[in-house]
Amino acid sequence: MAINNSPNANPTPNTTPPAAKPPKPPKPHARLEKWIWILIYGGLFVMILGIATGRTDAALGWAIAVPGAVVAAVGFVLIYVRSRLPNDVTPDTKK
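RE: above sequence
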């Protein structure tokens, strides 16, 4: 006869499982950080595309490169804005 020593072999009725740990709070300002990098890399890509296009058509190249540079600059400004925002992490959740 085999002996089953597993902890769930004969669970007693009316026992509740241990409470689940609460999920970790999301990283504060994660959405802003995501958009910062999208704006920077997207703007730089469009600016380079405009510079490359400017070799064949100068007016079109400027029309593409300038908005790309502006978008990248907005991303860089948002880095400064993010550095000035307070962290919302409470001492209880900070490890």
